[in-house]
């Protein structure tokens, strides 16, 4: 954080050092790389060879602009740079860097296009490339969509290689030896006689020359780090209490803030009485903000207690107050008028459905809070026309812009220091809390303030996962699935989210059908329609976004049809699958789980598959029926990612994704009453505990040429694989999450 | 009011009904102790009082009956407790926010039950919530730590 501070506080000068870390995508007009944000204000003897590598006489810093939310993003980004830079991970410092247009994310924009990730046609490829240009132009620095690795795979290695070759060129100038005689290892250039010239000593000379941009990436056979188990750089700090998160930021003279805003999200604060709070010990100031009231005090607990003591009159919500009305809105959305997309329409679904009595089923998935364990917080200081913000965020550029607008300064005067995050799962794609913290800081007379939301306040304003419904109709013929017609209704996640960020939302919202329309199956009559429900409670991206609900709908209904056909759930999926890497994933999980081998009485397996964020992932869940309910014994997972960057972190991510999927499917929901979330802490918003956690066996496949992310793809198959296993074990089909409504679990 | 934390005695002028959690975090700067829920559901705030694992968010500072140990004082400075070493070896942490509490819970479990069964590990560790889903690694790390501690005492 302190290092980030040094970088970010430098004034913006025109950098004389060209950016070379980016891979040029897009049309010519936008092809010029963004200015290197590190070039501004470098001191004598320092070099920022690309936006990702900063070399000073006292050390090498790798810039890891994708936020680390616990998924190991910082480590993975550093690893990719270090692989080509020829430096060891314990020789470098890591820094999230300042928010900058140079850190654009092109992989994210690609997912917004109406081409399935398995579609490699020329049209799809052209559209993906064109989409990159505006995203780069806008400089959208977003962490999300399992894109950190796909986005960085090429450009971070190139950044490392450019820095390495430039350092070699500098060493060549310094020594008079030809570059071809120089080698690099362990953070130094090696001369033929064995002399080591550390990179740190070459920085001054390297800064004087043009970066060497004509670089060749190493052959995989030469990799030292990629694909091998490495020690994540944050592990020791996170095992000793030393890791600092946003909530731990402490500044001299800092005031501690608590906040209550209208739990009817977006509603007004009509008035308040703080007479009791004003007299409480440690209270410095009562501060009204947009939609609520905050307290500045000398301690977090005193601030929270005082804010609770304020009597506040809340206005109504801008959405329907009761949960039943939200479900009714979805039920009424399966109409032509509300149809948002029909990107899958193979064969003649209507004719086939009309020819026989179709099997019909309806599914539901509730709102779900993100609820990362670290409650939302932000520390701000506004002084001398300058704003400093310390917070864990996935959208630093939006935070910068939006806080600038609240405070009334230029974005350049707002310095965002991105801290380590105690989880996110999409929660930190929102910045309303930071904007409220800015309002508090504006009234703190230049003193820093740290706003910590109480768990209850955080969960009352979580912008949860979408509520969603699906209706399936299908037929079987000759022991096979013949027709599959799935309609999905949900409010638009993207519209809700983009509106809060002040961004336009155009065209269909592909998240309404993500994880359903784009599945690699050749069902003869196959249709997936998206229906955009009216806006209900505000919603946001939740780990795996649309696919978190749609994977459940698609794979449950497919399983129902397969059982109706009397076919084997794995065999029939393999027969229908028309994408080689996905077939391999299904075959692998079948092999891992010994699919088809007999199980003892009361025990059964279920399988599900989902291709999301470009990653095909299949899971087999094994359950046992016990006297006290269903016990989840084991989960086998296979996923195709092109390259497993670090097998340890990969396994941890997959296991976490499965637990995320299962834990919420069984236990959790967010419901509204009087427009307020009813579950505001972990007593009512329940999640898997260790005693319920199955053994999870993971295999990563590397058959595809494209490199994919793994943060989200293990989530969508988990719930349907469990529901399908429970059906196999009990004959009971669970069509509504959370399953605990209809079934006991151990 | 006197309070002994990680071997250091502090003289504090604070309300007796302030939860120990906030005394540790805001008054003493021991930020390794985490706030997660405030209602003893998540376990991120766990510390030891006389060796027993307690939720510091639901323990009023006036009720503290003994010496407090936090994640910062679990091992001697510059060293790792066997539980911490196992956490590093298995690379348990993802976001890491719950891990101070998980480690304190595991250390208390192993101090009282040096050779826990899988069931005993699950029962004790189910007091602590991990949203990232590191449970399989926590299980493995507790078993490793138990072995290390037993070898050390033989």
TrEMBL record, chain B:
Keywords: 2Fe-2S, Iron, Iron-sulfur, Metal-binding, Oxidoreductase. It comes from the Bacteria. Its EC number is 1.3.99.16. Residues 1-74 form the 2Fe-2S ferredoxin-type domain. One of its GO terms (molecular function) is 2 iron, 2 sulfur cluster binding. The keyword Ion transport does not apply. This is Isoquinoline 1-oxidoreductase subunit alpha. The gene is iorA.
């Amino acid at each position: 954080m302190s290092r980030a501070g040094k970088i970010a506080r430098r004034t913006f000068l025109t950098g004389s050092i060209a950016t070379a870390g980016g891979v040029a995508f897009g049309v010519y007009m936008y092809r010029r790389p963004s200015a290197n944000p590190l070039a501004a204000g470098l001191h004598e003897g320092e070099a920022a060879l690309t936006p990702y590598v900063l070399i000073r006489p006292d050390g090498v810093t790798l810039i890891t602009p994708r936020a680390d939310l616990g998924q190991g993003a910082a480590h993975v980004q550093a690893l990719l740079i270090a692989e080509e830079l020829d430096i060891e991970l314990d020789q470098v410092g890591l820094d999230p860097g300042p928010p900058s247009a140079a850190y654009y994310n092109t992989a994210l924009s690609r997912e917004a296009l109406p081409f399935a990730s398995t579609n490699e046609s020329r049209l799809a490829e052209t559209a993906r490339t064109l989409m990159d240009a505006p995203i780069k132009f806008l400089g959208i620095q977003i962490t999300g969509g399992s894109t950190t690795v796909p986005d960085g795979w090429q450009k971070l290695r190139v950044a490392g290689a450019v820095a390495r070759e430039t350092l070699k060129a500098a060493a060549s100038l310094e020594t008079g030896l030809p570059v071809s005689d120089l080698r690099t290892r362990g953070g130094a250039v090696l001369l033929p006689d064995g002399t080591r010239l550390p990179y740190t000593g070459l920085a001054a000379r390297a800064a004087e020359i043009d970066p060497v941009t004509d670089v060749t990436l190493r052959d995989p056979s030469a990799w030292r780090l990629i694909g091998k188990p490495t020690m994540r750089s944050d592990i020791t700090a996170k095992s000793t209490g030393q890791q600092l998160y946003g909530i731990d930021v402490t500044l001299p003279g800092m005031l501690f803030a608590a906040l209550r805003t209208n739990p009817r999200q977006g509603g007004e604060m009509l008035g308040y009485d703080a007479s009791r709070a004003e007299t409480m010990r440690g209270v410095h100031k009562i501060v009204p903000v947009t939609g609520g009231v905050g307290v500045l005090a000398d301690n977090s607990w005193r601030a929270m207690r005082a804010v609770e003591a304020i009597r506040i009159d809340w206005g109504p919500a801008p959405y329907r107050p009761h949960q039943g009305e939200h479900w009714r809105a979805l039920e009424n959305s399966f109409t032509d008028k509300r149809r948002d997309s029909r990107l899958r329409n193979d064969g003649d679904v209507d004719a086939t459905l009309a020819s026989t009595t179709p099997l019909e089923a309806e599914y539901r998935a509730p709102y779900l809070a993100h609820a990362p364990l670290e409650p939302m917080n932000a520390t701000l200081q506004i002084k001398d026309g300058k704003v400093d913000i310390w917070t864990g965020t996935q959208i630093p550029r939006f935070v910068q812009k939006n806080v600038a607008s609240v405070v009334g300064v230029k974005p350049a005067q707002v310095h965002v220091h991105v801290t380590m995050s105690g989880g996110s799962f999409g929660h930190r794609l929102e910045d309303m809390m930071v904007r409220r913290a800015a309002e508090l800081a504006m009234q703190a007379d230049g003193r820093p303030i740290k706003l910590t939301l109480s768990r209850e306040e955080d969960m009352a304003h979580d912008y949860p996962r979408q509520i969603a419904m699906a209706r399936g109709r299908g037929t079987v013929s000759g022991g096979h699935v013949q027709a599959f017609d799935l309609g999905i209704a949900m409010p638009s996640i993207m519209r809700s989210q983009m509106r809060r960020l002040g961004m336009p939302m155009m065209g269909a919202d592909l998240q309404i059908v993500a994880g359903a329309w784009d599945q690699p199956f050749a069902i003869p009559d196959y249709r997936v329609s998206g229906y955009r429900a009216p806006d209900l409670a505000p919603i946001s991206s939740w780990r795996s976004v649309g696919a978190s609900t749609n994977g459940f709908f698609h794979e449950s209904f497919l399983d129902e049809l397969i059982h109706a056909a009397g076919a084997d759930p794995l065999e029939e999926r393999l027969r229908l699958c028309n994408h080689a890497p996905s077939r391999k994933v299904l075959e692998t999980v079948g092999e891992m789980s010994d699919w088809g081998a007999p199980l003892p009485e009361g025990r059964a397996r279920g399988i599900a598959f989902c291709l999301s964020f470009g990653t095909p992932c299949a899971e087999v869940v094994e359950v046992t029926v016990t006297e006290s309910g269903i016990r989840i014994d084991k989960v086998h997972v296979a996923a195709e990612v092109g390259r497993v960057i670090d097998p340890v972190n990969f396994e941890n991510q997959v296991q976490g994704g499965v637990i995320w999927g299962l834990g919420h499917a069984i236990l959790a929901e967010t419901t509204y009453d009087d427009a307020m979330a009813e579950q505001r802490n972990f007593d009512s918003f329940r999640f898997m505990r260790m005693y319920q956690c199955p053994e999870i066996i993971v295999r990563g496949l590397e058959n595809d040429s494209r490199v994919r992310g793994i943060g989200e793809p293990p989530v969508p198959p988990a719930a349907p694989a469990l529901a399908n296993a429970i059906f196999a074990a009990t004959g009971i089909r669970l069509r509504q999450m959370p399953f605990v409504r209809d079934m006991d679990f151990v | 009011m006197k309070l002994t934390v990680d071997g250091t005695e502090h003289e504090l002028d604070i309300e007796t009904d302030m939860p120990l959690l906030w005394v540790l975090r805001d008054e003493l700067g021991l930020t390794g102790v985490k706030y997660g829920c405030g209602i003893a559901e998540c376990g991120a705030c766990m510390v030891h009082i006389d060796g027993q694992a307690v939720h510091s968010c639901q323990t009023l500072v006036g009720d503290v009956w003994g010496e407090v140990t936090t994640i910062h004082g679990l091992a001697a400075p510059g060293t790792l407790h066997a539980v911490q070493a196992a956490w590093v070896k298995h690379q348990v942490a993802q976001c890491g926010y719950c891990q101070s509490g998980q480690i304190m819970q595991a250390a208390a479990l192993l101090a009282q039950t040096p050779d826990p069964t899988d069931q005993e590990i699950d029962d004790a560790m189910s007091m602590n919530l991990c949203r990232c889903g590191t449970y399989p690694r926590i299980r493995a790390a507790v078993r490793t730590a138990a072995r290390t501690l037993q070898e050390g005492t033989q």
